[in-house]
Inverse folding.
């Protein structure tokens, strides 16, 4: 009888014949787990199953509206909406910061600490330039960028304070003025320091008339007006009938004298 194994007649193994390796059978544990998963899947899609009810909530959501839809579906939509807003805000913030960085780096180099201005404005401008040049040596940005930010902050506080009358913008304008007066006082020589600081305060006060217009120290009383109810009613007095005069019991007698 002919043998079909991979050995020759001499007992030597032949490499060109394939070796048959028996495959392991599926264990009962794996089959039981698979059957349990299949059973759960079938029961979940029954009429009263979890997946069936969730799918029914999804189908009925357009008719129910956001207020009456399933709570879990409303929570999912809210989380998705908040996540979308956060991602959009993050992307918009990155774009704004990148554009601001390009604007600041594209500003021409300003000679800080040098007499580049003249007139009355130089009394405030030159000390500010000098102070920024002396105290921005270790910063990762150039001194000209810091000077440009100082100008943008002042212009923004002045314009938005005039247009919006917002207390936050007015606070920014007040902080900008205080920082400017401090820089003028510090960088101006001691002999002319009081005059320079006084001119800076006067200039800031003059511009504050526009940035803080409408600001009052009076306490604003906000209350609801009293409700007055007017009822048009006409009262007509009804006359009371007079009582008849008391008659004598014999007044109607025909034989009266």
């Amino acid at each position: 009888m002919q043998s079909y194994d991979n050995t020759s007649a001499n007992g030597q193994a032949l490499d060109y014949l394939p070796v048959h390796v028996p495959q392991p059978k599926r264990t009962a544990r794996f089959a039981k787990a698979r059957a349990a998963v299949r059973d759960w899947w079938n029961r979940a899609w029954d009429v009263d199953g979890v997946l069936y009810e969730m799918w029914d909530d999804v189908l009925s959501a357009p008719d129910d509206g956001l207020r009456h839809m399933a709570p879990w579906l409303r929570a999912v939509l809210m989380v998705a909406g908040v996540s979308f807003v956060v991602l959009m805000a993050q992307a918009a913030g990155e774009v704004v910061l990148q554009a601001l960085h390009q604007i600041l780096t594209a500003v021409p180099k300003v000679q800080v600490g040098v007499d580049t201005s003249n007139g009355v404005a130089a009394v405030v401008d030159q000390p500010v330039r000098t102070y920024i040049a002396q105290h921005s040596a270790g910063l990762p940005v150039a001194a000209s960028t810091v000077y440009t930010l100082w100008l943008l902050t002042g212009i923004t506080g002045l314009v938005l304070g005039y247009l919006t009358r917002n207390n936050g913008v007015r606070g920014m304008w007040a902080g900008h003025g205080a920082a400017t007066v401090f820089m003028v006082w510090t960088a101006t020589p001691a002999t002319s320091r009081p005059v320079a600081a006084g001119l800076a305060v006067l200039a800031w006060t003059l511009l504050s008339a526009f940035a803080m217009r409408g600001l009052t120290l009076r306490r604003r009383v906000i209350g609801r007006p009293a409700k007055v109810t007017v009822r048009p009613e006409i009262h007509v007095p009804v006359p009371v009938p007079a009582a008849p005069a008391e008659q004598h019991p014999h007044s109607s007698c025909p034989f009266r004298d």
